[in-house]
Amino acid sequence: MARILAYTPTYGDGPRAETLEAVSAQTWGGELTHEVGWLNPFPRVDNRNVVAQYERARAMALEGDYGALWTVEHDMYPPKDALALLWETGEPVVYGVYMLRHGAFVLNAWEYLPNSINLGESLSLKRDRSILRGVVPVSGIGFGCTLIRRPVLEALRFHGGETTRQAPDLPFARECVRDGIRQVAHFDVLCGHYDPAKGDWVWPWEGVRELGKSLCQRG
Question: Of 33, 54, 67, 212, whose CB neighbour count within 10 A is largest?
């Protein structure tokens, strides 16, 4: 039976209640341990805290002999079958799908560019939406709901890029592309992302937003 470590980095008031409930409600049949991380050695608004959190998650997953790390950020609302669907792909790195909130509201899943070491643009910017179904190759990005298998954790560390001040998702995505580590997004794992400015959850598409909690409680 596979063992997975779910890790939720947080600060301030901590995770959303819905996030904790969503992790505990997973229908996946393996062993799941959920760790809420409070490691923030730098002032609150500093990406070095994010890197420190993910490096701790990586160390815990490796030292605890887990088969994979599932990152669930503290303002995410994954569906009940998220982990099962991510795991069943068998892929090294699998992203759940949600909207980024920094700048333009775009999908966290970025286009895969064959025979290139560059990252593509957000798939929400592509005109052909017919490809946004099932399991889709991507070039990253966004750790809101991401499954990373043990061999990848053994091969790559989390870091803040050349400036050391980036969040770790971009450097991680670039290194996966560079090293030929396959990354995919699962478009059946559509997650809510809480937007404090709106005081509500943001969903990838209108139809998903209308389903709201019923989608996350399916299963």
Answer: 54
